[in-house]
Design a protein that fits this description.
Largest sheet: 7 strands, mixed
Number of helices: 11
Strand content: 5-15%
Order of helices and strands: HHHHHHEHEEEHEHEHEH
Structural class: alpha/beta
Bound molecules: guanosine-5'-diphosphate, magnesium ion
Radius of gyration: 29 Å
Length: 359
C-alpha cells in the first residue's frame, strides 16, 4: 500500500515555471534549422517558441493534476488525515485553477500560432511572439498563489503514513515505556517499519504477522494513544479520529511492574479515557512485564479490568509469555470483520458483474 500522494510532483513557483518554459523555448529555437527565406525562417522559429512554451507549461501543470488524487475519493483514513493537514476546499480550488490555466494557455497557443503563420512581416511576427509570452506569464502569475499552496500541501501530504488499509489492524495503546514497541516487535516477526505520521515527531511503527495465510497489521502510535486527552491538541485529536478508520482492535498495554514510571492508578485513568474514546472498538487488555511485576499489582489491575467486563491477559513481551494467546484473541475478534469485509467485496463484485452482463 502506498501513500496516495506519493507521486505528487514538486510544484514550481510561477516564476520558476515561466523561467523554465522560456529557457526551453530559447534552446529549442537555437537548435532548430528553419528553411526558406528570412520571413519563413522567422515564422518557423517563433512558432516553435510558442509551441514549446505552451507545451512545457502545460506538461508541468498537467503532471500536477494527473498525479494528485482527489481527496473525496480517498479512503476515509486518508481523508481524515488530509483534512487536518490541508484545507480541502482550497486544495480543490487550486487544482481547478491549474486546470483553467492549462486550457487557457492551450487556446492562446492556437490563436498565436495561427496569427504568426499568417503574418507577412518579420517584425510583427516577433511582436506576436512577445505578446504571447506576456499573456502566458500573466496566466501563470494569476495562479501563483495556487501553485504555492499546492506545493505546501504536497510537502505535508507526502509524509502521510504508509499503511495497508485492507489488512485487519491492531492498534496498540498505553503509557510510554509500558512495552508497546517491544510488544510490536515480539508479535510481528519482521522488523517493524517506521511510517511517518505528520502528527508525531516519531512517526508510527507498523508491523505485520501472518496466521493461517492471513496477514494482520499492528500499529504503535507514539505520542497519540499514550497520554491524557487534555494534553492533545486539535490536530492530534483529528489524527486519532483517523486511526479509528484504520484500526479494528485496540490492544491496551498495562505495566503492573510500574517500571514504566506511571503508577497503576494513572494507567487505569488513561485506560478509561481511551476506552471511552474508542468505545465502539473491541479491546484486549494485556498486563505486560509479568516476568518482573508484583503479583499483588497484577491482581489489582486484573480486578479492575474484570469489573469493566474485560478478560485481562498476562503477557511478557520480553520472554514471549502469553503472546500466542494474544494473537489468538486478536484473530478471534477480527475474524468476523474480515469475513464480513470479504462478503461485502464479493457482493460488490457480483453486483458489478450482474450490471455489466445486463442480468
Ligand atoms: N522485564 C520486562 N521488560 C520489558 C517488557 N516489555 C518491555 N520491557 C522493557 O520496558 C522498556 C520500555 O519498553 P518499550 O517497548 O520501549 O515501551 P513503549 O514506550 O511502550 O514502546 C524497555 O526497556 C523494554 O525492554 C517485559 O515484558 N518484561
Ligand atoms: Mg515505543
Amino acid at each position: 500500500m502506498k501513500n496516495p500522494f506519493e507521486k505528487m510532483p514538486t510544484v514550481l513557483t510561477a516564476d520558476e515555471l515561466i523561467d523554465k518554459a522560456f529557457r526551453r523555448a530559447e534552446r529549442a529555437a537555437s537548435a532548430s534549422t528553419p528553411r526558406g527565406g528570412p520571413r519563413a525562417k522567422a515564422r518557423q522559429r517563433e512558432e516553435l517558441r510558442v509551441r514549446t512554451v505552451s507545451s512545457v507549461v502545460r506538461d508541468n501543470l498537467k503532471k500536477i493534476l494527473d498525479r494528485t488524487p482527489g481527496v473525496s475519493e480517498l479512503p476515509e483514513f486518508y481523508r481524515e488525515l488530509v483534512d487536518t493537514l490541508v484545507d480541502r476546499d482550497q486544495f480543490h480550488r487550486s487544482l481547478a485553477h491549474v486546470n483553467w490555466a492549462i486550457k487557457t494557455i492551450r487556446n492562446l497557443e492556437q490563436r498565436y500560432a495561427e496569427k504568426i503563420r499568417y503574418s507577412r512581416n518579420p517584425e510583427e511576427i516577433a511582436k506576436l511572439r512577445k505578446s504571447f509570452y506576456g499573456r502566458v506569464a500573466d496566466v501563470i502569475k494569476s495562479i501563483a498563489d495556487d501553485l504555492e499552496y499546492l506545493n505546501q500541501a504536497r510537502n505535508v501530504l507526502k509524509d502521510l503514513p504508509v499503511v495497508d488499509l485492507e489488512l485487519p489492524t491492531v492498534v496498540i495503546a498505553g503509557h510510554p515505556n509500558v512495552g508497546k514497541s517491544t510488544l510490536l516487535r515480539a508479535l510481528t516477526n519482521a522488523k517493524p517499519e517506521v511510517a511517518s505520521y505528520p502528527f508525531t515527531t516519531k512517526g508510527i511503527n507498523v508491523g505485520q504477522f501472518e496466521e493461517h495465510h492471513l496477514k494482520y497489521q499492528v500499529i504503535d502510535t507514539p505520542g497519540l494513544l499514550d497520554r491524557p486527552l487534555s494534553e492533545r491538541n486539535e490536530v492530534e485529536r483529528q489524527a486519532i479520529l483517523a486511526l479509528k478508520h484504520l484500526g479494528d482492535v485496540i490492544v491496551y498495554v498495562f505495566d503492573p511492574s510500574e517500571y514504566c514510571g506511571y503508577p497503576i492508578e494513572e494507567q487505569i485513568h488513561l485506560f478509561e479515557e481511551i476506552h471511552r474514546e474508542f468505545g465502539e472498538f473491541p479491546f484486549i487488555a494485556v498486563l505486560n512485564k509479568v516476568d518482573i511485576a508484583d503479583e499483588e499489582k497484577v491482581k489489582a489491575v486484573e480486578e479492575f479490568l474484570r469489573s469493566k467486563g474485560l478478560e485481562p491477559l498476562r503477557v511478557s513481551a520480553a520472554t514471549g509469555e502469553g503472546l500466542e494467546e494474544l494473537k489468538r484473541r486478536v484473530i478471534e475478534l477480527v475474524k468476523p470483520m474480515v469475513e464480513e469485509q470479504a462478503r461485502k467485496v464479493m457482493e460488490r463484485e457480483l453486483k458489478r458483474y450482474r450490471e455489466e452482463s445486463g442480468l
